[in-house]
Amino acid sequence: DQQVKQNSPSLSVQEGRISILNCDYTNSMFDYFLWYKKYPAEGPTFLISISSIKDKNEDGRFTVFLNKSAKHLSLHIVPSQPGDSAVYFCAATAGDQFYFGTGTSLTVIP
Amino acid sequence: DSGVTQTPKHLITATGQRVTLRCSPRSGDLSVYWYQQSLDQGLQFLIQYYNGEERAKGNILERFSAQQFPDLHSELNLSSLELGDSALYFCASSASGGHSYEQYFGPGTRLTVT
């Protein structure tokens, strides 16, 4: 039962444009959401997080939006850079349980 | 470099065998988490330890077990291995046991069961 879903396996964006990565979830008890970035042959690295009591969190070029009514989470990267090319995982927590999506592979084209 | 180390990097073994994966958390981190990533799958949370005690269990099979030692390193034991256990196994650590804390991931151990 995949409680966190990333329905787009891949995304290509031109350098300098906006990248929007989406994530849907089913469990209304999730209270914290996180995004991780993963390069090949490395473990995931934390990017940005948001509490369920907020609807937006911004950190430099990265902004996460949370729409609780739609159970939808998105990560915006502006402007996109070639170094952003990686696999992005969204994750959610409920109590002590952690749930990750299957990832979206982002390619930023120079 | 996240500061989390995992050994070995690669492991090839046969069905029915038992292996042990090792993880050393970042200095000072008390929590260790284990994840499994199979082909085309997301990260599946297996288990969490906090300061030597089991804190949370996810989708961990009964054939798998883990422990965290007094020096805070952790081991994941996989026994009676099956072909489907072939995957990347990640360890992560965080300063606290709280689920809002970001986790720092190791580079993973790639297990191949033949």
Structural descriptors:
heterodimer; A: 110 residues; mainly beta; six-stranded mixed β-sheet; five-stranded antiparallel β-sheet; 11 strands; 57% strand; B: 114 residues; seven-stranded mixed β-sheet; four-stranded antiparallel β-sheet
Write the H/E string of chain B, N to C. Answer: EEEEEEEEEEE
Largest sheet of chain A: 6 strands, mixed
Let me know the largest β-sheet of chain B. Answer: 7 strands, mixed
Task: Report low-confidence residues of chain B grouped into runs of 5 or more.
Answer: none
Biggest interface: A-B, 26 and 26 residues
Percent in helix of chain A: under 10%
SS-based class of chain A: mainly beta
What is the residue-averaged pLDDT of chain A? 93
Instruction: From the alpha carbons, calculate the radius of gyration of chain A and give it in angstroms.
Output: 13 Å
Helix fraction bin of chain B: under 10%
Instruction: Please provide the count of β strands of chain B.
Output: 11
Mean pLDDT of chain B: 91
Query: Radius of gyration of chain B, rounded?
Result: 13 Å
Shape of chain A: globular
Shape of chain B: globular
What is the straight-line distance between the termini of chain B? 31 Å
Oligomer: heterodimer
**Which regions of chain A contain 5 or more consecutive residues with pLDDT less than 50?**
none
> Helical region count of chain B?
0
